Amino acid sequence: MTRTVQCAVIGGGIMGVAALYQLAEHGWTDTVLFEKAELTSGSTWHAAGQIAHAVGSRLSGWINKTSIATYKRVEQETGQSIGWHEVGGFRVAYDDDEVDWMKSIMGVGRLLDLPMELVGPEDVKKGNPFYNTEGMKAAVQTFEDGHIDPSSVTQALALAARSRGAKIERHTLITGAARKGNMWRLTTDKGEEVLAEHVVIAAGSYANQVGAWFGLKIPSVSCLHHYLVTDTVQEFLDRPELPVMRDNSFGGYIRQEQKSGLIGIYEGHVCPTVWTMPEGAPWQAENELFEADYDSIGDFLMRAFDRMPILENLGIKRVVRGAITHTPDGGMLVGPSGAPNVWLACGSSIGLAWGGGAGKILAEWMTSGETSQNTRSMDPRRYGDFADDTFIVERTKDEFMRRHDTPVPGKQFHSLRPVRRHVLYDRLAAKGAVFGEVAGWERPRWFADTPGVPDRNGWHRQDWHENVAAEVKAVREAAGVIDLCAFSQIEVKGPDARALFERLSANKVPSLGRIALCHLLTDAGKFETEVTICCLGSDTYFVGSAIARTNADADWLKSHILPDENVTITNLSQNWGMLALSGPASRDILGQITDADLSNAGFPWLTGQEITVADQHCLALRVSFTGELGWELHAPLDAIGAIYDALHTAGTDHGLLDFGSHALNAMRMEKAYPASGELTTDVGLVEANLMRFFKPDNRTFLGRDATLNTDAKWRLVYAEVEATTHDCHGGEPVLSGDTVVGLTTSGGYGHSFGKSLVFAYLHADAPQTGLSVQLLNEPHALHLLDAPVWDPKSERPRT
To answer: Helices (DSSP H) in 494-622: which residue ranges?
Structure first.
């Protein structure tokens, strides 16, 4: 028997059922969900069920808020109880970094209108008189969050999805998948064949095995997490339910479970995993739990008892140690997989909190091609080829063990470092480079005075501030070189290559030897990506973009090649590197190691040439992200070392200095260049004030009509933040009086200008004056700027 459906969802946990419900809400009702056992029988059923409002980002807050609203709505609609306990919570802080985090969380609450307060230990004691507040400095108190019953809410969503026409088939195991024309052919253990136009993989711990059928490597690992339920607590019998306590001092949470205590532990020293590939989870597993490991969690449990002493002498009546999926960066995998019409809703370590909101984003994406929120951090394609099996498992263990570290801005993982190093790594390390990991590669963030200095990160300016100032000064007054070998480099070649770009690029496709900054848009006119295109020949183009976009950008280009077109996409990113040389002396330096004519006449601004540098063949592009005269030098990695050494030899008498990404960000802020924080998936060229790159030229291209018909609800502004000793990191509220009128997207200190600078999106009708930004819970005046603070006419790079 063969049947056809618009969409098949594989997996009946909260992520799959929430996706099915939201798809039906958005009009896709020719859908069926397959679950090999009972709904929730994988990981969902044993979840502790907390949903928090005190979270670190606007997106997380929006997802959690949307999940709660969705669950309440289906309870009202269906009459099926969801087991919701709206008890609020406290997230507590013991050191200065944690206090700053609490202050930043208050900004998230302000943006999303989530009731919360920044309180002291005495208020925590009032909310939970049994909690030991010794050493506590502050806490965020929330009021409209709490915890939910996993099985009840999943059943309510299933009932609501069925009422809209969606189908659920329990005890039906999908056994394989293959492409059949424009459809996916799924086979079941009942001998049935299902042809699906779209497939959603929501298979939890089975996602790796299911993904393999579609040619996917899904970066998700099943980690074992404990929570324990105590005997009855007599003190709980005659009082209202306690709020949920979240406390990094023992790496977990404490809440009330009926009249007992519940303690959840994330060990900070070990992360046991199960069912890793290639074997994967056994198909017969159902409602699986694992034996408790008290030796592993003992120290953390004692710390928890110290915080909640009334639990210490009680018996433990139940231990739940189950498998929960985690990803290497802790974010879930929601969105397009890279395989045609295969979507992911998996890799979720907080499924109950994320399910309803993630399902809504996925349904928006699938049914309309756009989302109401920025999806970059959850896009499954964010991982590159560096994410092999070893990386996926070991980095995920690192993420699990650091789950309750304070998430200061710039936080980096340490496992497997360096994952990848190229020929310059040792040279740069010897010069004091302090590295950050970018898509598996090591990229200098800043240069210390001596080698081996550890990186330091936080909300306030760190002690590398003056080092970065010196790097900026060198580039502005002499010259600097930055290692950008972690860069996406793609060759697009063939007689139909130009036609492909004509259909995708909002900007005019460059002619021979020219460079153009091009935005590739979705059909809804939103940003898919930003790329630099250089025309190298009648049928050859070089495309550069951010390294994290490598897979997604290549997939986007490939997916739009027509069946009868001759176009080849070659990803050079793992074998090529790039150095950026910038500053007033860059022409003099580069001129010593190349015979190419570097004059304005011989090598104009925004052009590219294949030249020889230090006896190495390379592609030189006359562009600069610093706002200075400069060139990007692209070459195979085995040539980069010779070019780098030659630049420094030639630059000795010109003051050439290495600089890192912190300095680069400072200079891009001074030049008011938007970057990834501004070019998000929920806005387009109109909102971002980038219509100067929109050149229809009587062409029909993706997103053209939507852009022309955009009714912008947001507008990007560039501004100075007054009187602050710390800078915006993105996600802070912008206020007019007490009213939220926007949010910041990225910021940094302008060393050449001596001011803190920021980009922000404001509501279209927001005022131009009288604005402030809520930075670490304090208002700072925000003054809009109508031009870059450095070289507003962009004369320097054209010199």
So the answer is: 497-504, 550-559, 586-591
Every domain of the chain and the residues it spans? 2-368, 426-449+464-486+575-670, 488-571, 708-797
List, for residues 663-702, the tens digit of each pLDDT value: 999 999 999 999 999 999 999 999 999 999 999 988 999 9
Q: pLDDT tens-digit profile of 261-275?
A: 999 999 999 999 999
- Is the CB of residue 315 less than 8 Å from the CB of residue 230? yes
- CA-to-CA distance for 123 and 120, rounded, in angstroms? 6
DSSP element (H, E) containing 257: strand 252-257
CB 753 within 8 A of CB 711: no
d(CA 21, CA 749): 45
Backbone angles phi, psi at 707, to 5 degrees: -65, -45
Return the axis-axis angle of helices 58-78 and 351-368, rounded to nearest 10°: 90
All residues at 6 or more sequence positions from 661 whose CB lies less than 8 Å from its CB, including other chains:
436, 443, 444, 445, 446, 482
SS (H, E, C) 618-673: EEEECCCCCCCCEEEEEEEHHHHHHHHHHHHHHHHHHCEEECCHHHHHHHHHHCCC
Closest CA to 485 of 432, 549, 438: 438
Measure the CA–CA gap between 746 and 717, rounded to whole angstroms.
11
Q: What is the pTM of this model?
A: 0.96
Look at residue 1 in the predicted model and tell me its pLDDT.
81
Q: 2-368: CATH homologous superfamily?
A: FAD/NAD(P)-binding domain (3.50.50.60)
Instruction: Examine the pLDDT at 277 and tell me if it is beyond 90.
Output: no
| Residues near 254 by beta carbon (within 8 Å), at least 6 away in sequence | 244, 245, 247, 261, 262, 263, 264, 304, 307, 308, 311
Cα 97 to Cα 87: distance, rounded to the nearest angstrom: 27
Residue at token pair 């074998």:
575
The CATH fold of domain 488-571: Alpha-Beta Plaits (3.30.70)
CA atoms within 13 A on the CB side of 454: 6
Q: What is the CATH number of domain 708-797?
A: 2.40.30.110
Q: What share of the chain is helix, strand, coil (3-state, %, to 5)?
A: 30, 30, 40
* Cα distance between residue 63 and residue 351, in whole Å: 11
> If you compute the radius of gyration of the chain from its CA atoms, what whole number of angstroms results?
27
Distance CA 460, CA 438 (A): 23
Burial class (CB in 10 A: 0-12, 13-18, 19+), 443: buried
**Whole-angstrom distance, CA of residue 397 vs CA of residue 728:** 30
Are the CB atoms for 118 and 777 separated by under 8 Å?
yes
Does domain 426-449+464-486+575-670 bear CATH number 3.30.1360.120?
yes
Q: How confident is the model at residue 78 (pLDDT cuts 50, 70, 90)?
A: very high
Judged by phi (left if over 0) then psi (alpha if -120 to 50, else beta), residue 684 lies in beta
* Confidence class for position 340, pLDDT limits 50, 70, 90: very high
Of how many residues is the chain composed?
799
- CA 294 – CA 46 distance, rounded (Å): 19
Spatial contact of 157 and 17, defined as CB atoms under 8 Å apart: yes
Tokens of 741: 């009128």
**Residue 139 belongs to what H/E stretch?**
strand 138-142
Using alpha carbons, select from 396, 403, 395, 452 the residue that is nearest to residue 419.
395
730: its two tokens? 């993105």
Q: What are the Cα distances from residue 171, in Å, to 11, 304, 443, 450?
A: 11, 40, 49, 62
Same fold, 2-368 and 488-571: no
